[in-house]
Amino acid sequence: MSHFAVHYTYVSDATLLAEHRPAHRDFLRSLVGSGLVAAGAYPDAEEPAALLIVEAETADDVATMLERDPFLVQGAIARRRIQLWNPPIGIFA
């Protein structure tokens, strides 16, 4: 298995984000143990954004895993980047 860093940049619509955040978080919680290792927002980012760390075989597998994320389905994600991540040191090594 490989590790992937998934960078979400959210839309600036605070109402949309607040409305769908509970379902988004429930969805992500449902992936723990099935590939999602960690997820969290960047609290000091210039625009609303988050990082997810995912274990999977390929970037396509990550995209498939996340395709039902309510934030994605409801248009709350402005950009998503899935990047292979190689952590040779630390708890993910």
UniProtKB/TrEMBL annotation:
It holds the Pfam family YCII. Belongs to the YciI family. InterPro entries: Dimeric_a/b-barrel (IPR011008), YCII (IPR005545). This is YCII-related domain-containing protein. Gene3D superfamilies: Dimeric alpha+beta barrel. Signal peptide: none annotated. Residues 12-86 form the YCII-related domain.
